[in-house]
Amino acid sequence: MLLGAVLVLLLAGAAPASAHAALRATDPGDDSVLRQAPRHVTLTFTESVGLLDDSFRVFGPDQRRVHTGEATHADGRSDTARVGLPGKLAQGTYTVAWRVVSADSHPVSGAFSFSVGKRSATTAQLDTGPAEDPLTRGLYDAARYLAYLAAALLVGTAAFALLCRPADTSPLRRPLVAAWWTLLGSTAVLLLLRAPYETGTGPASAFDVSALGRTLTGRPGEALLARLVILLLTAAFLVRLSGRRERRGPATLATGTALAAALALTWAAAEHASAGIQVPLAMASSVLHLLATGVWLGGLVALLLTLRRASGDLVEVVPRFSRIAFTSVTVLAVTGLYQSWRGLGSLFALTSTPYGRLLLAKLAGVAVLLLVAGYSRRWTQRLAAPAAAVRAAAPARVPQSVGAPAEPGGPGRPGEPEGPEGLGEPGEPEGPGGPVEEPAASDADRDDQRRRLRRSVLVEVAVAAVVLMITTVLTGTLPGRAQAEAAEQAPAGSLPPTTQTTVPFDTGAATLAGRGAVQVTLDPARVGENGIQAVVHGSDEGLVVVPELRITFTLPSRKIGPIDAELTDRGGYWSTNSVNLPLPGDWTMKTTVRVSDVDQVSVERRVRIEP
Questions:
Q1: Which of 264, 285, 365, 443 yields a CA-CA distance of 20 to 30 A from 257?
Q2: What does the pLDDT look like over 30-42, one tens digit per residue?
């Protein structure tokens, strides 16, 4: 019932999509020149996106912000975003900065431009605002890490108590309480910081009531709210569990499992697993992965605390946890392999994308963790060996009827007293003076084995904390598959790739235009058709008008060129949209500036043309 309720709450309306939204198209098109001003701006994405109060910021030719309407979904489609523009727009170039929230809860942003009538004469860089606030992002990531850490400790400690059944659970109470409160506090912080994290603003905006209300109606906010509810139910479960003498029944295990799965689902329903290919299978895999992580890593902490106390049942508890840990590692290996394939998309992405490189770092950490776990397993087997030997040496007890003759050498032999004072322990060797006691060295050996196991587990816990930190960063990184998909789309959602080169010149003329610099923008600096915009600045860094500006390209390594760009004077700047550079490589760009009939100079610069 609980899992069903959480599924209905978090998955209503979920549809397959690509993790992290990629911009598919814009209307007007990027870098387009329109005869008439458009009525609105429309963006189309590869997946459904959530809109913010400030999803669009439009800046005019004068670099001032243009008043726009409220952002909406075009034609009711959740994969679009649209904003209305004023009725009259002046001629010139307009820049559109946008920011939306993708289906996997991560904000994405970009910018593009279009022109009305003609392009603006200025090429000055426009400040469209920060993509994110560093302090907000830092606090949000820290809260996410604490939430993962606390969830692993909470699930693992509870599972250790229920499945390994230590006789004394008092060492586990404090970490259980600490984990619960840490998870509650970090979830509350995430809920408050969600709005500024989405909008890229400072932490102070977390207390905006309207922004918090918007957060609670979105999927990430609903997931965090559901997590708070599940934590309250978990607290009631733990309180009831601590007050009962019998804690290990099937109903108790079923309730604890349901609560742990529901808790893990609040992560799976709002992160990478909730978007992309094979969403249902991915979410099931994510839940199992999170649970196995908690049972193993959180259980290690519980085992470490248990080992600090010399308890007689350690020889039973430690092997139980060893078997549970082995099962958890198997589940982690299977689900991790599937999630890696789903997130990467190709082996090439393993080394060519930030997601792949982080995954390699995580795999290296897991390899170290497994290596240390091998040592722990060795000491576990040695610690359990004495108990196994005692069980193997104990003779089987055969029921006998009342009055039956006693076996030779057994209790009840003639002349031997019966009862506690004369009854030897089964399998206990006897000597001339009675039962031979265990050598004192065996207790010392067990203490040494316990200390070695405790140190090994401590190293495991430290490495596990690092692996969990890498995992936290990984869950907030664009998956390799999504990055490849975004690269296949027309790069209309971000500023086009350009190469901007500043070419200083000095003609020797004693005028403002006689010395200065030419700012040349080559777009997109790739093989094929390229556009050029060039602006001439004088010695006072102001714009100057020159009678002639010429740019040619030569590829010395292939003996190609010179190719004349054939720039056209646009009344304040020079440009062309039809420079064909047929091959990649390091081209030589020769810029010739003529400031009078007799004063001119040519300057060469190297530019890189990509395939």
A1: 365
A2: 878 888 889 899 9
